[in-house]
# Entry
Amino acid sequence: MPPTVTLERPTTQLMPTVLDIEASGLGRNSYPIEVGYVLPDGHAYCTLIQPEQEWTHWDDQAAALHRITRDLLEERGLRAREVATLLNTRLAGQTVYSDGWANDFTWLGVLYEAAGLSPRFKLENLRSLLSDEEADQWHVVKSQIASERGTQRHRASSDARLIQLTLQRIRAH
# Structure
């Protein structure tokens, strides 16, 4: 009997969907002002969120970092219900990862509560995808990639892409 030959296909490990949220600040009364994500195929999406009437907290230090003004949110942001509906449509059934899970989970809750909806996707901590060794390398690798990419705006989809690229490089080694 001739030997069996098994042809191995190169395996491409898909990257997970990564989500990031920019907010009015850190703290109890902060709220989401921008949400962005990057899909496994690299497609990115980002949108500003128009503040609800009761969302009044504004941190000037946070604004200096993300450079989003409240006027810009009022002018160009989508309503909370539109954003939540869009996220549900595009991310339905997926597990989506965040490197700032505690904050992003809270802000996503604020968004969905204002929208009167529930997320149709699951938000998980990116740390759950990393071994201890990979987690130890995370900040160094992320800084290297950020440096290689040059100046990028501190915005939700740019940050989500940086997170996804960092994971990709860590997994490649």
Q: What stands out?
A: The first strand starts at residue 17 and ends at 23. The radius of gyration is 18 Å.
